[in-house]
Structure formats: C-alpha cells, structure tokens
C-alpha cells in the first residue's frame, strides 16, 4: 500500500522511512512517497497559528487531493530568549524563499548578545495523519537543547547545525543520521502516533 508523506524534502522522507522501520517493524509492504510524485499538487499555504493547525491542514488537503492515507508534519525551532521565535515561521524566518543558511544567519544575529545559559530552545514537531475527509489524529513531540554560537556538523538540515543536545554535547548535524533520528522531536511525535498509524494500515489492507 502507498502512504503519502506530505513533503518535498527528501531528507524528511528518508527520516520517515527510518521511523517506520524503527516503530512499525512489521512488514506491511508499505511504499512511502513524497509530494515529488505529484508535481501538479497545489502548494498548501501554512497560515495556521500553531504547528498542529499547519500539520492538519497539509494532511487533510493532501489526502483529499491524492485519495490516499497521508502523514504530514509541521515542525520548528522555539527559542526561549526570542519569545518562541522562529516557531511556526522556522522555514521562512528570513523570508518566504529563505535558505537554511539565511535562516541560521538571522537566528545567530538575533542571539548575538545572548549568553549561553540563556540560549535554551527546543525543537517541536506535530505529526498529523489523515485519510480523505478525515483527520485521524495529531501527535506532538519535543526535543530540548541550546543554540550554539556557530554552525557545526554536515548532517541534517534546517537549524540542525546550531541545535545542541546538552546531554550529548553535539549538534544534531554532528550526529549520525540513525542516532539523530532516534532522539529527534519527530521521532518522539512518531512514537506516539505509531499505534494509530498501524491500526489504520491494517484497516486499509482489509479493504
């Protein structure tokens, strides 16, 4: 069966493949596909006021468009010293078509006078599951850390080179993919969602 991951980001698709293997180990013969397989699908405007609102909007729209079961997420970085910025605007912090490098540069500029002990932050992720005309469920996961003073590491994407897990002492971008994927905010959200995802896989298989 096919499940749509509502993203064009190949890195996120690879992470979702890992999470299915990690938390839904039974072989259901699932084919995860990204929105790159649907080049004509309209862009969903993420105008919600929360991660959950944006994730649910993406999931439901994509399910209605494709007729398939969909998993969508919205995630971002929440920095305490910046009153929660960039938050739901993480991917477009420095503009609508911002690159990761531009967003990192803006974040570092906004934190340049903030001492290390006040650079606390967390990554947040909400995963929403939908079938046509129906939001099945939404689940939130968070991962705590601090923001470094310069990018470190070549793995990951987004703000990974700045986000340091204090218990590990490395940025997400310095960790091997399998380690990061097991401890990430997305992993925590997926772990909560796994049983409901599996339940709906079984229902669809019976049809």
**Shape verdict:** globular
Query: Secondary-structure element order, as H and E?
Result: EHEHEHEEEEHH
Helix-residue proportion: 25-40%
CATH architecture descriptor text: Alpha-Beta Complex
- Which strand-content bin applies to the residues? 15-25%
Query: Using DSSP, what is the number of strands?
Result: 7
The largest sheet is: 7 strands, mixed
Indicate the structural class: alpha/beta
Tally of separate helices: 5
Structural key phrases:
207 residues; alpha/beta; Maf protein; seven-stranded mixed β-sheet; 7 strands
Report on this model:
There is one protein chain. The protein is an alpha/beta fold. It has a single domain, classed as Maf protein (Alpha-Beta Complex), CATH 3.90.950. Helix content is 34%, strand content 24%. Strand 4 and strand 5 form a beta hairpin. The protein is globular. The mean pLDDT is 93.
Can you give me a brief rundown of this structure?
This protein is of the alpha/beta class and 207 residues long. The protein has helices at residues 10-23, 51-66, 100-110, 177-183, 185-206, and strands spanning 2-5, 31-34, 69-79, 120-131, 134-147, 163-165, 170-171.
């Amino acid at each position: 069966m096919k499940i749509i991951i509502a993203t064009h980001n190949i890195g996120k698709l690879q992470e979702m493949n890992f999470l299915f293997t990690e938390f839904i180990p039974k072989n259901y013969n699932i084919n995860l596909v990204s929105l790159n397989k649907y080049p004509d699908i309209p862009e969903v405007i993420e105008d919600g006021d929360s991660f959950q609102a944006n994730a649910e909007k993406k999931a439901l729209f994509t399910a209605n468009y494709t007729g398939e079961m969909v998993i969508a997420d919205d995630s971002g970085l929440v920095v305490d010293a910046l009153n929660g910025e960039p938050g739901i605007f993480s991917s477009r912090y420095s503009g609508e078509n911002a690159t990761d490098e531009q967003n990192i540069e803006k974040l570092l500029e906004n934190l340049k006078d903030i001492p290390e002990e006040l650079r606390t932050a967390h990554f947040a992720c909400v995963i929403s599951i939908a079938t046509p005309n129906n939001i099945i469920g939404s689940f939130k996961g968070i991962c705590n850390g601090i923001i470094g003073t310069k990018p470190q590491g070549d793995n990951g994407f987004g703000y990974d080179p700045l986000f340091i897990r204090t218990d590990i002492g490395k940025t997400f971008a310095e960790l091997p993919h399998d380690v990061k994927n097991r401890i990430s905010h997305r992993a925590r959200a997926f772990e909560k969602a796994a049983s409901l995802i599996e339940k709906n896989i079984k229902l669809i298989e019976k049809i």
